[in-house]
Design a protein that fits this description.
475 residues, Immunoglobulin-like, 3 domains, binds copper (II) ion, 34 strands, binds CU-O-CU linkage, seven-stranded mixed β-sheet, 5 helices, mainly beta, 8% helix, six-stranded mixed β-sheet
Length: 475
């Protein structure tokens, strides 16, 4: 057996975790840059010590015996091969969120592959065109399976990683535990579907109650944030610090302070931050989550050690080299509108489900509450909402005609976020998941260069379940 990527990666990880001299430009000659990374990934029931040792563990499902699963690391431009084994009592698939994979590797049951039965296996193998922070998760009954813990992070390293002292991955998640400490079994609850989704009552970072992060004055840390929650949106504020957003959904963006000094990260999204530790030895600074103002809380604290790493401030963090994404040609682009409707307090009176027009009450009785262009997504394969010509540029006008937030995710591509409510965005971010506020319209643009049937859905997984899902066909 060749050494598994997981073991190599642990060594790489340790190397990264050591303070390295800044500005000594990453390791130019990393061995194995082009060699395929091989990973064995097993999905199985696990005991998750969400509240730490000394508290009863929670029955969960995980990859690699842990929740979240292992951080898979590979270098941009290399190939990843994942030998996936299903040791769960249920069928499942693995989706590589944000990675521009060939359609057959996208992990969507009944659309791109059959479900992997209990005891079955499937090999996922694809190139990694883009560097950045990605993640993988179940795409079968995701509202239940992702909530149970089937999620992990895929870090695609830049060929020349930007210099930082340290890197941390924070998988943000929440869990709904019942009084007896078990994972509440009300998956697909009708109230959750028609409202904000399954918001949990226990927030974790990397599958544990958040713990303070020891830091040193002068340190520069790259924080890779991943929101793996079913429904909870996070809005992080770093007291006394000014983190810079350097990538969104894996793709580099001009380093900038987040709007309102709050890093908003919706389910499915990733944000890479560069945090310069400018506090003084011995200080404690809260990292708060203020997204739901009436339920704001401190996630954790930055805990300064007694000894500084350096006293001089560092020069500004340089932009990360862009990923090789095809630039949409707006002059020739065709615009398609996608109107999202439904939910409580909405204006949706009815929509079609499995070809049948149905009223809102009847939809709700079928566990549905949302529509895209008048169609409610049923079980699996259905007709595409849009058919796009391969290689052409398109603008998608995403119209949120509801009273709720929706992070809309398109598989297999990244798109530029052009306008919000008609106003051009300052940074034209590349994203694969874009958060729409209630009643907001977001225009995004892309080149339809990846052929196949691709999911487009809300990443609030109860909304996806409740019908907020469509197929974009590229032929
Ligand atoms: Cu991360 Cu279709 O999902
Ligand atoms: Cu939604």
């Amino acid at each position: 057996m060749p050494p598994t990527a997981a073991s190599l990666n642990r060594r790489q990880w340790l190397a990264l975790a050591m303070p390295v001299p800044l500005l000594a430009a990453g390791c130019a000659a990393r061995p194995g840059t082009r060699a395929p990374t091989e990973v064995d990934l097993v999905a199985q029931p696990v005991q998750a010590a969400l509240r730490g040792d000394g508290h009863p563990a929670v029955d969960a499902w995980g990859y690699g015996g842990a929740v979240p699963g292992p951080v898979i690391r590979a270098v941009q431009g290399s190939r990843l091969r994942v030998d996936f084994h299903n040791r769960l009592p249920a069928a499942t698939t693995v989706h590589w969120h944000g990675v521009r994979v060939p359609n057959a590797m996208d992990g969507v049951p009944h659309l791109t592959q059959p479900p992997v039965a209990p005891g079955g296996r499937f090999t996922y193998e694809f190139d990694l065109p883009d560097a950045g922070t990605f993640w993988y998760h179940s795409h079968l009954q995701s509202a239940e399976q992702v909530e149970r813990g089937l999620q992990g992070v895929l870090v695609v390293e830049e060929r020349q990683p930007p210099a930082v002292d340290r890197e941390r991955v924070w998988v943000l998640d929440d869990w709904r535990l019942s009084r007896d400490g078990r994972l509440a079994g009300d998956f697909g609850d009708a109230h959750d579907i028609a409202h904000a989704g399954r918001i949990g009552n226990l927030v974790t970072v990397n599958g544990r109650l958040p713990r303070d992060l020891p830091v040193r004055r002068g340190e520069r840390i790259r924080l890779r944030l991943v929101n793996a929650a079913n429904a909870r949106i996070f809005g992080l504020r770093f007291d006394g610090h000014a983190p810079q957003v350097v990538a969104i959904d894996g793709h580099p963006v001009a380093p900038h302070a987040p709007a309102g000094d709050t890093v908003v990260i919706a389910p499915g999204m990733r944000v890479d931050l560069v945090l310069d530790c400018i506090g003084r030895p011995g200080e404690r600074h809260a990292v708060g989550d203020v997204f739901y103002p009436r339920a704001a809380y401190d996630l954790l604290r930055l805990a300064y050690e007694d000894v500084a790493l350096r006293e001089q401030p560092l020069p500004p963090f340089p932009p990360i080299a862009p990923n090789p994404l095809p630039e949409p040609d707006l002059a020739s682009a065709t615009t398609h509108a996608l109107r999202f409707e439904g939910g409580m307090m909405g204006r949706l009176h009815g929509a079609s489900l499995d070809g049948k027009p149905m009223g809102m009450m009847a939809l709700m009785r079928s566990g549905k509450a949302w529509a895209v262009n008048g169609v409610v997504a049923g079980g699996h394969v259905h007709e595409p909402a849009l058919t796009l010509e391969r290689g052409r540029s398109y603008v998608l006008a995403l119209v949120n005609d509801t009273r709720w937030h929706h992070p809309i995710h398109l598989h297999g591509h990244a798109f530029r976020v052009l306008r919000r409510n008609g106003r051009p965005t300052a940074l034209r971010e590349w994203q694969d998941t874009v958060l729409m506020a209630p009643d907001e319209r977001v225009d995004v643009a892309l080149v339809a260069d990846n052929p196949g049937d691709w999911m487009l859905h809300c990443h609030i997984l109860e909304h996806q379940d409740g019908g907020m899902m469509a197929i974009v066909r590229i032929r």
